[in-house]
Amino acid sequence: MPEMKISFLGTGSGSSTRRAHTAMVYDCDDGTRLLVDTSSGNSVARNASDLGMSVADFNIVLISHHHPDHMSGLLFVQFSRFLERPEAPPLDVYLTYEALEWAQKMCAANYLNIFEVNSEWAKNSDGREVIRWHPVATDQEINLGPTTSASCFPADHISGAVGWKVESSGISVVFSGDTRYNPTLVEASKGARLLIHEALRTDEEQDYAKNRGHSTSGEAARTAAEAGVAELILTHLDSNYHDNPTPLLDDAKKHYSGPTSAATDLYQVIVSS
Ligand SMILES: [Zn+2]
Ligand SMILES: [Zn+2]
Fold first, then answer.
1. Ligand lying nearest the CA atom of residue 200
2. What value does the CA radius of gyration of the chain take, rounded to a whole number of Å?
3. What's the pLDDT tens digit per position in 194-232?
4. Residues with CB under 5 A from ligand 2 (ion)
5. pTM (2 decimals)?
6. Which of 47, 72, 192, 261 is the most exposed place for a label (fewest CB within 10 A)?
7. 14 CA to middle of ligand 1, Å?
8. Which ligand is nearest to the CA of 155?
9. How many angstroms is it from 154 CA to the middle of ligand 2?
10. Which residue segments constitute the domains of the chain, with CATH numbers given?
């Protein structure tokens, strides 16, 4: 039976002081490995290493949006990858056109090892192409491996923000990205094997979450229930719930009866079709 292994490298919200920022690895049944968001700093390299993975083996990156807790780690990912594997083909980065504009600015501001950047690639000081950009439109189907494809859909967070749906060997996994509750996400998640959803706060703190462009755990669960997904994992948690996510899970249970858990850094889960 086909399987997909998901490794959570970072599960903290932007303001979390207890966890690495958002990043996940999907190891698909056809051998395709996807890095979904890149955390900040060197968290991807550090936490991947703790799980026995090398950043040198990351070739494909999906970005949800250009906030620094999701995208700024890209600089370190490509930097570490180049050090470990200088002859590697460029890192393929998929992101929206708007996120790409910000990614170019980020690279241009960082003349450490990225020397030249445009809307197609980023080159280092040796003139070697280290990143190849793949700007995507929402709902555009992208083939990433023999049986793996992905598409993004608009999130209700900041302009250009998206969630990602990955389908591989009959297994469908949806990542909400950062978002308020929205019907587009419900539609995109219909029939998914797994929904990985951000959950900043409890339902009692709905205004706090909404004002910051985020969801409560109850809203994440409502999306899971309305979409009929088989499993829900909460991520992007605030420091308040680092030690004890029970209040988030209790709210989720009020809306969704399927298996629900709260991810932690280095948490790994295997899903099958
Ligand atoms: Zn975030
Ligand atoms: Zn954000």
1. 1
2. 17
3. 999 999 999 999 999 999 999 999 999 999 999 999 999
4. 67, 178
5. 0.98
6. 261
7. 5
8. 2
9. 13
10. 3-272 (3.60.15.10)
